[in-house]
Every structure is written in C-alpha cells, then in structure tokens.
Amino acid sequence: MKKLIAGAGAVAAALLATPATTPAMAQGKTITLCWAAWDPANALVELSKDFTAKSGVNMKFEFVPWPNFADRMLNELNSKGKLCDLIIGDSQWIGGSAENGHYVKLNEFFDKNGIKMSDFMSATVTGYSEWPKGTPNYWALPAMGDALGWTYRKDWFARPDLQAAFKAKYNRDLAAPKTQSELKDIAEFFQGREIDGKKVYGAAIFTERGSEGITMGVNNALYPFGFEYQDPKKPYAMDGFVNSADAIKGLEFYKALYKCCTPPGYTDAYMQEGLDAFKSGQVAMQMNWFAFFPGLAKDEKVGGDRIGFFVNPGEKTKGSQLGGQGLSVVAYSNNKNEALEYIKWFAQPDVQKKWWSLGGYSAAKSVLEDPNFPKTAPFAGDFLVAMGQVKDFWAEPSYAQLLLAMQKRVHDYVVADRGTAKEALDALIADWKKVFKDDGKL
Amino acid sequence: MNGTLPPKSLAERAALATPPTVAMRVRGLSDRAVAWIFIAPTIVLLLAINIFPLIWTIQLSFTNYRANRPNAPVRNVGIDNYHSILTDPDIWAAMQATAHFVFWTIVLQTVIGFTLAWLIDRKFRGHGFWTTIILIPMMLSPAVVGNFWRFLYQPQIGGFNYFVSFFTGLPPSSFEMIGSVKLAPWAIVVVDTWMWTPYVMLICLAGLRSIPDYIYEAAEVDRASPLRQFWSITLPMALPFIMLAVLFRGIENFKMFDMVNLLTSGGPGSTTEVASITLKREAFEKWRTGFSSAFAIILFVTVFGLANIYVKALNRVKQR
Amino acid sequence: MTGITTAHSVVEPGARSRRIAAAVVVVYAVLTMLPLVWIFMTSLKTPPDSISYPPKIVFQPTLEGYCNLFTTRSRQTAEYIRSLPPPSGFCEQIARDRNMVVVSASNYAPRFVNSLIIAFGSTFCAVTLGTLAAYGFSRFKVPLADDLLFFILSTRMMPPIAVAIPIYLMYRELGLSDTKLGMILLYTAVNVSLAVWLLKGFIDEIPREYEEAAMIDGYTRLQSFRKVVLPQAATGIAATAIFCLIFAWNEYAFAVLLTSGDAQTAPPFIPIIIGEGGQDWPAVAAGTTLFLIPILVFTVLLRKHLLRGITFGAVRK
C-alpha cells in the first residue's frame, strides 16, 4: 500500500510539476548527499537522521576524501551524473558550477521559504554561495564554515623546564605565537627535542602535491606576509602582486618552515597526515582546518587539556585561508524537490544549533552571534576571529587549472628544491596569465 | 579432454536430437555466413568502443574543446595542440620520467626474472610450489597493492625502511622513499619490479624449457665449459622469449598509471609524473580535452611505432 | 609448472647446485610475500597500533579494522553517547569504546558487489564473443584475417587514460556514465582482444578432423561447433574466463575516471577508505585482504595456463 501511495505521489508530482514550496514528499524515497569524507561529514550523517524521521525521505551518503574530492565530484558533475542530489561542494567550484549549469539557482527558493542570506555570516555567503562574487545570485546555502587554523600541545607548552629553556633562548614566554616568525621560533625550539623519551618535531604543515594541499598551506603563510592575487583596482593584473617582495618573503618563509621544522617524510602531507602526526604525539603544532578541531578536542590521547588552538598568526598583515562549503542542489538530479526540502530543513535555527553541537561549523548568525557561542568550545572564539580575516583562492570557472599550476610551482620550489621563490612566483604568473588568456579575461 | 570422438554414436544422437526442418534450415548457413556471424559481434563492439572513440579523439585533438565547458564555442586550432605539446618542457619532463621508469624496470625485471627462471629450471624438490608463490604479486591489482605500498614506505610507521635498516644499519627515518626527489623514481621502480619480475620469470622459464637437451649433450661431448654453454646455448636460445617479455613489459609500463598514481601521484614536485599521469591531469583535472586528445594520440603513435620496430627486431632474432 | 620431465642424462644439475638454487628461490619467494603478510597483519591491528613507530610485529589482534571497513563512525561527546540506546552489536561496541557512534554502514559492501557484477558480466560477454570470433578466425578463411587480428590486439596498446577521454564524452551523451552497463561494455571491449587471441590458440589445437568427422555424420557447422568444439575447448575457455575476470577485477584507471558511486568498483574505493582524520590503515588493509583473496584462489587454479594468458597466447609451452 505504501508503495502505491509513493508511486501515486511521484506521478502527481511529475504531472503537476509541483512548485518547490509544496514538495510532494514521497515516503521512502532516497536522496544522496555527496561531500568530502571527514569528521564533519560523519556528524552530518548523525544529524540527518532527524530529517529522515521528520520527512520520511531516506538519506544516502557518498563521501570522498579530500585529496580525491574535487577530481571525483567535478568529474561527476561534468559527466551530468545523477549520483548526487545534494552536494556540499568546495568554495572554489562555485564559479564553474554556476556557469556550466551544474547547480540549481536558489534565489527563488530562498525567497519563497523565507531563507535570508543576511541570516548567515557574510564571509560564508560571499565565499560559498555567490557567483559572480558580490552579486545577490545564490547557488548554495552556507553549510560549513571553515578556515585554516593551528593546534598546539598545551601540555608541552606548559612544562616548566621547556618554559625556562625557551625563555633563556628567545627571551619571551613559550605561548601560542602572535606572528609567523614567532611560530617558526617555537617550531625550531621543539624540532628534534626529546619529550617523554620520544623525539618530537616542530610543526605539521601542508605539502601535499596531488590536489590542493600545498597551495592551501602556502597561502596561509602568503596572506599574512602581504600577498595579493591581483591589483585591487585592476582585476587580473598580477605582476607586482603575486610576485611582490612580500609574497616572495612569504614563500621563502614557508619553505624555511618546511625545511627546519617538519617530521621526516613530510613531503606529501595534507590534513590526514597532519592529524596522524599530531595525534601520535610527533609534533608540537599542527596547521589544519577548524573542521577537525571538535574531533581533536575530544581525542583520547591529545584532546582535552592537552590541546590548545590559535588563529593563523599575522605578520605584516592578517589573513587566513578560507575553507568551507555550501550546500547545493545538483541540476541533473531527479529528486530536486526532496533535495530542496533538505536545504529548507537544514537552514532552520534549531537544526543549525544541533549541527554545531555535533561537530559541524554552522554559518548561521543565530548560532554564531549567540553571546554564549565563544564559550561552547575552546576553539569557538578563534573560529570567529579566523572567519573575520579569511581570503580565498580563485573561484573562477578555471580554478582547477589555476590551482594545478600553483600546486606544481610551489611544490617544485618548496619540496623539490627547484629554483628560487621569485622564479616560482614568476612562473606562476605566466601560467595564470595563460589560463586567463584562454578564458578571454586578459 | 582428450577422448577421441566415437562418430557413430554421435551421428545417431545428432539424428535423434535434431528435428529435420531445423537441421535443414541451419545447414543452409554457408561457412562464410557462419564465419561472419561469429566474428561480426566482436568487430562491431570494437568499432563502437575502440575505433569510433579513437577517430573522435583524433578529431578533438585539432580543437580547443573542453569537456567541462559544454556551452563554450569550439574552435578548430589546427596543429596548435601538437605544437604546444612537443615544445612543452613539462611534457618532456614527463617523457623522461617515463623513460627512466620503463628502462630500469625492464633491466631489473629481466635480470632478476631470468636468474630466477634459470634457478627454478634446476627442478629442485618443491619448485612448483615456490614458483606459484613467486607468481602471486603479478596477479594482484596494481592500484590496491600500490596504495598499500604507500603505507609500507612511510619512514616511521611503514615496514620497508625498517627492513632496509635491518640489513644496512641505516636509521629507518633517515631516508624517505616516496618523499625525496632522489629516491621517489626508484620507489616506483621497486614496487613495479616486485610485482612484475614473476612475469618475466615465467616467460624466461618457458624459454629455458624449450631448449632441447640434445644440444647440451652435444656441448658436453665437445667439453664446453658450463659458462661457455650458458653464453653460447642458454642465453641465445632463450633470447626470443626474453625479448617477448621485454616487449610486453615495455608496453605495459609505458602506459603505467594506476600504481604510480596511488603511490606518489607524480610527486614529489613532478619527479615521478609519468606520461599517463600528465595526461590524466590535462584531461580530467584541467579538462583541456582537445590538448589532451593530441597528447593521447602522440602517446599511442609512440607505443605503436616503438612496438612495431621492436617486433621486427624480435622476428629477426627468431629467424637466426 | 611441472612441464614435461625429459630424461636429463648428462645435463642433469648436480645435487649441490640444486640445493643452492632452491635456497635462493625460497628466500626470494619469502621476501616477495612479506608485503602481503604485512597487509594481512595490519588488517588485524587497532588503528593506533598500525601507526605506532617503530611498527609492531607482536600485537593483540582485533577485528576493529574489519568493523571499520564496513561502518562509518563519528566521534561524539560522552554526554551525547550516553543519551543513545545501548550498542547493538560487536562493531558498535568497539566504536563506543573509542567514544564514537556508528552512524551508518560504509560503502565497501556495495562496491564489492559492483566489482562482482561488473567482473562477471564483462567476463561472460567477452568470453562468449571471444569464443565465437576465435572459432571464426581459426576455422574459416576470413579476408584480411591477420590484419583484423592485429587490429584487435592493437586496441590493448592505447594507454587507458587515452581511451577514457572519448569514452567519457560518449558515455555522457548516452547516459552511460557511472552505470554498470557502461562498465561491462567497456571491460568486454578491452577483454575481448585477450579472449580472441587466447581462444584462437586453444581452438587451433583441436584437430579439425573431429569436426569434419562429425559433419560427415550429418552435423551442421553450428552443431559441430556446439557439440564437438566447445567441450574440447572447455579448459581453454575456463582459463580465458579467469584471465578476463582478473583483469576486470583489478582494473583501476577506467573505474576511477568513469564511475563515481552507483557503478564504482572496489579498486578506486579501497584507497579512499579513511577513518577519523587520517587514513584508516587497518580498514584499508582489511579491504585489501578481502579483495585479494579471490585472486589468490584463481592464481592457484590457473597456474598451468598462466604463461599463455599473460603473453596473449604467444607462448604456449
């Protein structure tokens, strides 16, 4: 009987072309949500059980680890695949996905359902939803705020013997660094030191070659040193910005940090390797996405009192690499109504609140602007600071080409010891110019 | 399977089993018709899934088409793609990485494989069992196993460095197989050699067993030393087999993608970026479909050309 | 591997040289198995044990890796876990002990099933087509037979990524992206060249006289093919089938580029099994172990025909 009703419902939906506001919810229907395979995704599975209970729509999940996520999902979208009904896509994809019609435009749906972008933190709306940037054209609901931050071993930093040794050497207290240079001092201080009979290392940073790892890590150093993607007054004019003296200093700094203070074998490391290094007690500090901090804070070995967090330190200026994703409906899906219903459910303030409590980073102001928010987790306050100073990589439709070029140039320089920082950035500008020329933007 | 056919009983059974009309109708099929009915499906499938796409690739290789921009205008760019590939230093670097990989895997696999075959040919007790054990790696999925070698190569937690340090005394974390620019090209050679030496061994073994005993007997009569026998009988007679093994390994490793992709994904930097990985990046990450089609054609022509030259050489050796 | 035992009179190797040969071969065989043993051992470790340094040789075996392979879990606070009903199974208990909750079954089982369907489906098609074509080439004068045979073989020389570019576009137009049918068709096309070459060798070895005798006795061509040739070629067909099966089972490049979920096979999935944060090596090892076992069995079954299979029938012994 249930099946019959479901069938009738589906037929009715098809015949009436039901508007999104009153979706014909077919009992027992299943929709698939695609995202990266990481801690927050598993928390989302737990959260989504409420949606299934309320709507009767079953949820299936396809999670792909970060190093393969972009390749796999863009491949899927480009092949007009029907695997994903909903996709939590990375911020840089928004340009291509909007222009090539992979995502459903959500403005009308938002208006009808009273979902207002002003209810979400503005950095996330710009970063995850808008294309073209700065215009009210929305292709996603900000789902997961994120930025690069740092964790450190609070218990090691608090040891009196290490405190004294550090003070003797650097003439200041051993504490979370305020600048990039301080960060390097601390990393050097820990590098090779014996702690509890184990040799430890300074910092785990990103050096991954295959997807986006080293670019994200390098950017996190370039921004505070004063790197700019383009002339603020003249779009796509990159000479003197991408390869400015500040940018060169930033890139040289990152290489120096990599050379002095990372664990052995750290040539192809991204978030997973960083987590492994930190959790197995190999490193004093770790660069990683805020997304992992809830899990780390609960970790049996290094969590609790043993872990501390800090925002990416400034140098000449301030800046953090933006992460995070928006929730979009795939244009090729056969279940758009149910998918939209999921977004409607997800945008509710109480769902957003539970999302945060389970380990997801809500972008809703109702959660973030709650006066108690900074007290809800040891990294909550830092998260707000970080989100206030984020910068993102290109979100152009050609972002993948721009990214691959940067991956190659900076990995060749930082890890494979090829050429100088200036040569790497000059070559990068040449690569990027070629891409923009092909796109007719230069 | 070697039972001989008892024609009478078969004919009787056939007569009983076949209704006359059907038999007549089927008999009506000429041999020629049967031949075409049998061969046609295969040819059709290959035309649809191999030849048609190949022609399409050739056509695409003269355009600037991009599979991720279905709405963008497609322009005919003539031989621009070919020109920019052949003058691109990154592509030449990839070809060099491929050449290094192909050359050294072939050398190592041939030397080790032939030695093993030569030893197994002594037919000691249990050689059948041990041969089967040695053969196992080549049957496994290069992707799944290559992925696991990434773990074995971890300097601190993997087994490989400890194994080396056990024999050489080097501290295990003093070298990084997939991390260092110097060692990474060898890391992929090691894994490929581990996997595919048995392949060469098996073919060499067949070669050694194909040498008739009377030749050795004659050599004994002539008082040829064992070394001399090896150089003037064993090696030359097994050579066509060795060359065949080299041909197959050469083609396979020129195409190498899965194991290297999972082990190093071309890194560090672009040190182990073999041709197939570059092609994958161009085609499925940058989505420069036209450009990568041209590269695909160049690779295909290269394999095909080299293989043809090699087969000619092989035939000459065989005829000697 | 046994081969023909010819009477080695003069050239019989001495006992000492045999013993040395045996020793070297056995040492090599043991070395070659070490990585596989390591995979199996890792599959029985706990995640912390698997990444401890130096690596543990002696450890308390556990099935956690296999549990993790089939589930996805989320780390939660103690208060949240206390609010849930008690664990309902072995794997859930293990997860709770680590302050985690099992949130759903993982995708490994469906991917494994996809592998089975696609491997067996494409093998069946490739062997059927291959047997027919091989018979055609073996028994009839086909115009341009040598060219056709070489053409069939040359399709194996293309790098798979190069083949995947147009196939990707073609499947996108036909709606075959990420479908089992699409993968079966593709693997059939790749395998059919192997099947034709191998089976032609096997069928060439069956004396024509058998069929001719049968046809004189009133069999039609098709009947004699079915009742005489097929039974005679059964071993060859079985060996060919296993080779096709192994190829389809192990294939990675096409699978990773042309499938994303519904038709994805195990090889592109196993490397992306990750646990909390880092790669969950015990789960990866468990997935690898389960994936390799069928191949181990087939290798043993096939050992007499291996040589022929890997050389496209060029070496028959």
Summarize the helices and strands and which ones pair or pack.
The complex is a heterotrimer of chains A (442), B (320) and C (317).
Chain A: H1 2-16, E1 30-36, H2 39-55, E2 58-64, H3 66-78, E3 86-90, H4 94-99, H5 107-112, H6 122-129, E4 141-144, E5 148-153, H7 154-157, H8 160-170, H9 180-190, E6 194-195, E7 198-199, E8 201-204, H10 213-225, H11 245-261, H12 271-279, E9 283-289, H13 293-297, E10 307-311, E11 320-321, E12 325-329, H14 336-346, H15 349-358, H16 365-368, H17 380-387, E13 390-391, H18 399-414, H19 421-438
Parallel strand pairs in A: 1-2, 1-3, 8-9, 11-13
Antiparallel strand pairs in A: 3-12, 4-12, 5-9, 5-10, 6-7
Helix pairs in contact in A: 2-15, 10-11, 10-18, 18-19
Chain B: H1 7-17, H2 20-27, H3 31-60, H4 80-86, H5 89-120, H6 127-139, H7 142-152, H8 160-168, H9 184-209, H10 213-221, H11 226-254, H12 258-263, H13 275-285, H14 289-319
Chain C: H1 15-43, H2 47-50, H3 64-70, E1 71-75, H4 78-82, H5 90-97, E2 100-105, H6 108-139, H7 145-154, H8 160-174, H9 180-204, H10 208-216, H11 221-232, H12 234-250, H13 253-258, H14 266-269, H15 281-302, H16 306-310
Antiparallel strand pairs in C: 1-2
Helix pairs in contact in C: 1-15, 3-15, 6-9, 6-12, 9-12, 10-11
List keywords for this structure.
heterotrimer; A: 442 residues; alpha/beta; five-stranded mixed β-sheet; four-stranded mixed β-sheet; 13 strands; 46% helix; globular; disordered N terminus; B: 320 residues; mainly alpha; MetI-like fold; 14 helices; 73% helix
Overview of the structural elements:
The complex is a heterotrimer of chains A (442), B (320) and C (317). Chain A has 442 residues and is α/β, with parallel strands linked by helices. Chain A folds into two domains: 2-146 and 324-391, Periplasmic binding protein-like II (D-Maltodextrin-Binding Protein, domain 2), CATH 3.40.190.10; 148-321 and 398-438, Periplasmic binding protein-like II (D-Maltodextrin-Binding Protein, domain 2), CATH 3.40.190. Chain A is built from 19 helices and 13 strands. In chain A, a hairpin with a 2-residue loop joins strand 6 (194-195) and strand 7 (198-199). Chain A is globular. Chain A starts with a helix and ends with a helix. Mean pLDDT of chain A is 90; it is low at 1-25. By secondary structure, chain B is mainly α. Chain B is built from 14 helices and no strands. In chain B, helix 5 packs across helix 9 and helix 13 (275-285) runs antiparallel to helix 14 (289-319). The longest helix of chain B is centred in the N-terminal third of the chain and has 32 residues, at 89-120. Chain C has 317 residues and is mainly α. Chain C has two domains: 15-106 and 273-292, no CATH class; 109-268, MetI-like fold (Orthogonal Bundle), CATH 1.10.3720. Chain C has 16 helices and two strands. In chain C, strands 1-2 form a two-stranded antiparallel ribbon. In chain C, helix 1 (15-43) runs antiparallel to helix 15 (281-302) and helix 6 packs across helix 12. The chains are: A alpha/beta (442), B mainly alpha (320), C mainly alpha (317). The interface between B and C is large, with 112 and 124 residues.
